[in-house]
Amino acid sequence: MLTRLLRTYLAPYRRALTAVVGLQFLQVTATLYLPSLNAEIIDNGVVKQDLGYIWGHGGIMLFVTFLQVCFAIAAVYYGARGAMGFGRDVRAELFRKVMSYSQQEVGHFGTPSLITRITNDVQQIQMLVMMGCTLLVGAPITAVGGTIMALREDVGLSALLLVSIPALAICLALIVSRMVPLFRLMQERIDHVNQVLREQLTGMRVVRAFVREPHETDRFAVANDRLTLTSLGAGRLMALMFPVMMLGMNLSSVAAIWIGGNRISTGEMKIGALIAFLSYLVQILMSVMMATFMAVMVPRASVCAERIQEVLDTDTSVAEPLAPVTELHGPTSLELRDVSFLYPGAEAPVLSHISVSVRAGETLAIIGSTGSGKSTLVNLVPRLFDVSSGAVLIDGVDVRELDPDILWSRIGLVPQKPYLFSGTIATNLRYADPDATDDALWEALEIAQAREFVEAKEGGLDAEIAQGGTNVSGGQRQRLAIARALVRKPGIYLFDDSFSALDLATDARLRAALAPHTTDAAVVVVAQRVSTIKNATKILVLEDGQAVGLGTHHELLEICPTYREIVESQMTMEEAA
Fold first, then answer.
1. Is the torsion defined by CA of 564, 567, 568, 573 positive or negative?
2. SS3 helix, strand, coil % of the chain, rounded to 5?
3. Which residues of the chain have pLDDT under 70?
4. CA 475 → CA 427, 496, 501, 506, distances in Å?
5. Which pLDDT score is estimated for 94?
6. What phi and psi, each to the nearest 5 degrees, are found at residue 474?
7. Burial of 14 from C-beta contacts in 10 A (0-12 / 13-18 / 19+)
8. What is the rounded CA–CA span in Å between residue 6 and residue 16?
9. How far apart are CA 165 and CA 51, in angstroms?
10. How many Å apart are CA 68 and CA 81, to the nearest integer?
11. Rg (Cα) of the chain, in Å, rounded?
12. Axis-axis angle for helices 2-9, 122-131 (nearest 10)
């Protein structure tokens, strides 16, 4: 998965990565040349006490060091460009993919997990790419080049590399292999911490209302402690790597000095050659250390890549049509034709064989007990889900054959839980129509019975709205959401229990103001209060996903026991009549 992800999203940065390889090669070449110069200074300058030779070759060493620094800076620059661009592209593609998901896919992954995958998981792979450009590219070049230079200094002493490098690599590989499952578990526990924290922040008022702060504190502590224990386990293994590396490096250095000292005493080796060999040995083992450091990051990045690729490979269940219809003609109409819907994995359908239609100027009201499928039915119209069987048609065209932008442009949805974005009242209303004038916004607010409280706010249309609309009441949030739908002026209005937070007087005024504004649109209203829907053109009564009644208020009182029972629970029969 990691290789696939890197191959796909690093392709646009091939030139930058090629530059990194070239610059790393030049940097390593300069680095490997320095011990050779140092050996010459010792053997030909220090031993012979030739100051001119020392100063001349010392100047060359300084110049080579300067070139090495320049190459290193350039390599890091191009590596950073490639890594940051990679992270940007992957995050953008993940965001695009998630935004195309239906509610089904979002529910499958979970919002906290999706947030972690777009942020933390991408960051781990981005860090791997960054470190790979600065460490992983240079490590093999250093290992190969250092081995060649070590052989050049003394072939006999170079046999030490055949023991030290494999021994160190095997020890480190055993440690890394134990870290892989810990990193996978760590990402899952980060997801859980995000989930608990998100729930507590969103439901803070509920937590305080029921005095559950101690319980929520303990709940977060459990999730946090689990993540901490997993991180400590991975950290202990990571901490073990460096002592093992230093032990191997120091033992190799001691063995090189011991064997090299004997060879110097017999005249088979010069002092400068031994010092140069030690430098090459350290560089070779350092390259193994760098490769190991990368190996530590690879398991976690691999886990992150699997999670990211899972999102990228999951196609939305609400697929775009291959040959979409891009124009709608004729008067606005909405029809549900023998619609059934079954949630994945559910034993029974939520909706079964629902058939109903509503035309421009008509209002379809949907009523029923909790869990009867009212909101699910509304969600099928904008394709938040796709029907399991049957069809939803707008202006006679199946919504599955419509271009998504055309479909959504014809719909003004006020969801059951209205959501406002951080910004101002104006920016939230213009979410429906970016080109709407201030006059159009005030008109929508007046119809939605929201003008009075907006005018009372400091700034009016420019009054600040917190994320989720938490700084306004539930009724104000509903009215602003209704006003947002009105700004769009769509062909179909979907009000999913959008009047529940309003008092009866405000509800009545809003419905009276709304009626002349929606004469050219089809209106679907989901409601619990009979007073909200009694004047609708037709009323659909749902019970356990089945349509048990369809007609006007007075017709249903005569023919539908379920509707009559709902009416009797809210008003007297005299009031209902």
1. negative
2. 65, 10, 20
3. 37, 39-51, 53, 57, 295, 571-577
4. 19, 14, 5, 10
5. 92
6. -60, -40
7. exposed
8. 14
9. 38
10. 20
11. 35
12. 80
pLDDT at 88: 92
Q: Which residues, including other chains, have CB under 8 Å from residue 109's CB and lie 6 or more apart?
A: 117, 311, 314
The pLDDT of residue 15 is 86
438-447 and 504-517 helices cross at what angle (nearest 10)? 130
Q: Can you say whether the dihedral through the CA atoms of 401, 402, 407, 410 is positive or negative? A: negative
In sequence order, the β-bridge partners of residue 522 are 492
Contact assessment for residue 450 and residue 479, using Cβ atoms and an 8 Å cutoff: yes
pLDDT at 248: 80
Give the list of residues 6+ apart from residue 298 with CB closer than 8 angstroms, or none: 2, 128, 176
pLDDT recorded at residue 95: 92
- Cβ atoms 392, 524 nearer than 8 A: no
The two structure tokens encoding residue 301: 């990045």
Backbone angles phi, psi at 390, to 5 degrees: 85, -160
Model's pTM, two decimal places?
A: 0.72
H/E element, 477:
helix 474-488
Please name the helix (run of DSSP H) or strand (run of DSSP E) that holds residue 524, with its range, or none: strand 522-526
Distance (Å, rounded) from C-alpha 492 to C-alpha 520?
9
Burial of 110: CB neighbours in 10 Å, binned 0-12, 13-18, 19+? middle
Q: For residue 346, give the DSSP letter.
A: -
Contact 400, 386 (CB under 8 A): yes
Those residues with Cβ within 8 angstroms of residue 155's Cβ, 6 or more apart along the chain or in another chain: none
Q: Could you give the domains of the chain?
A: 2-313 (1.20.1560.10), 332-410+492-577 (3.40.50.300), 417-489 (3.40.50.300)
Question: Environment class of residue 41 by beta-carbon count within 10 Å: exposed (0-12), middle (13-18) or buried (19+)?
Answer: buried
Please give the single-letter amino acid code of residue 194.
Answer: N
DSSP state of 370: T
Q: Which two tokens stand for residue 576?
A: 């209902």
Overall residue count recorded for the chain in this entry: 577
**DSSP letter for each residue of 136-174:** ITHHHHHHHHHHHHHHHH-TTGGGGHHHHHHHHHHHHHH
